[in-house]
C-alpha cells in the first residue's frame, strides 16, 4: 500500500513505534467494522469509516500494528440491532477479527457489545454513545473513546443552566435508546442545577422522521425559551429547516447535537442565531496542533471536504487501539485491555485521555457553542465554544455500581 505524501505527526510516531520495518508483513490484523451504511446512520457511518481508513493507511505506511498489516473488514448493520449483532457474530466466528469498532446507533452498539463480550474481543466505540454500554451492559472488553450520551447531555444541561433568562425548556428526542438516555440525563442534571426552570414533558419522534411539523408544534406548545433536541442527521436537518417555517427561532432557542456534517448539510439555510450546538470533535474548536492540521489536509485531499466529528473519532479510535496494542506488545484481547487501562492517549480531539477500567469510559471532552458564520469556511461553524472536561462529566464509580445493582 502506498504511503500518503503527508502523514500526521502523531500517527507516524505511533505507527513507527509499532514496527521496525517500513512495510507491514505477516498475518493481517483484522478489524471488524460494523456500521450503518444504510438506514438513518448512513451519512454518519460513512464519515467515521473514512476517518478509520485514513488511520489504517497511516499505520500500514509505517509498518502496521506490531509488524502486521491492518485490514478493515466492513459490514453493514443497516442501523438495525439484530443485523448488527448478526454481522458482528459472523466476523468474530468466521473472519478472525481481533477488534470491533464503527457502530453508529446506540441500540446496535448494545447488540455488538454483547457479541464482543461473548468472543472476548476488544470493542472500541467511536460513534454510538449509550451509557448502558458503560453501566448495565458493561463488559471488560469495552472502551468508549468519546463522551457517552449522559456526559454529553450533562454538558448541555450545564451550558443551559448558565442562561439565566431561560425559564422554560422542552426536551425532544428520537424515540430509541440514545434519544431517551439523552433527554433523561439532560432533564435530571438541569433540575439539579436550576430547580427554578420549568421543564415540559418530552416530545419524541421516530428516528429519521422527515415530517417534523407536528413535533415542532408540540414542542412549542409550552412556549419554551429553549428546546433541547436529542436528534441527529436527516431528522435534525428537517427539524431546523421546518422549524423556520413554524417561527421556531423567533419564539425559542434550539440546543442540539450539532456536528460538522449537519453544519455542512445546512449551509446558508442555517438560522443566523438562536441555535446552540453540542459537538463531539468539531475540528474548528480543537487545539490546532500539527497533527490535526496534517489530518485535515489529508482528509480534504482524500474526500474533498472538511472532516466531521465522526471522521475524527474514527481516526482516533484506530490510533488508540494501535497504541494499546503497542504498549501490550500483543494483539491478544486481555493484554490490550490492560494496556488501555494503563495508558494515556493523545488524539486529534484531545490530549492526555485515559480510560477508566471500571466502566471503559475515556475522559473525552464535550463541546458546546453557538452557530457562527465564519467566512474562512464554506459552511456555518460555532463560536464561543466551551470545552467541558470529560472527567467532570463522568458518573462516580459508586454511582455506577449503584445503577448496576439496581438493574439486576
UniProtKB/TrEMBL annotation:
<comment type="similarity">
    <text>Belongs to the leucine-binding protein family.</text>
</comment>
<feature type="domain" description="Leucine-binding protein">
    <location>
        <begin position="29"/>
        <end position="372"/>
    </location>
</feature>
<dbReference type="GO" id="GO:0006865">
    <property type="term" value="P:amino acid transport"/>
</dbReference>
<protein>
    <submittedName>
        <fullName>Putative ABC transporter substrate-binding protein</fullName>
    </submittedName>
</protein>
<keyword id="KW-0732">Signal</keyword>
<dbReference type="Pfam" id="PF13458">
    <property type="entry name" value="Peripla_BP_6"/>
</dbReference>
<feature type="signal peptide">
    <location>
        <begin position="1"/>
        <end position="24"/>
    </location>
</feature>
<dbReference type="InterPro" id="IPR028081">
    <property type="entry name" value="Leu-bd"/>
</dbReference>
<keyword id="KW-0029">Amino-acid transport</keyword>
<keyword id="KW-0813">Transport</keyword>
<dbReference type="InterPro" id="IPR028082">
    <property type="entry name" value="Peripla_BP_I"/>
</dbReference>
<dbReference type="InterPro" id="IPR051010">
    <property type="entry name" value="BCAA_transport"/>
</dbReference>
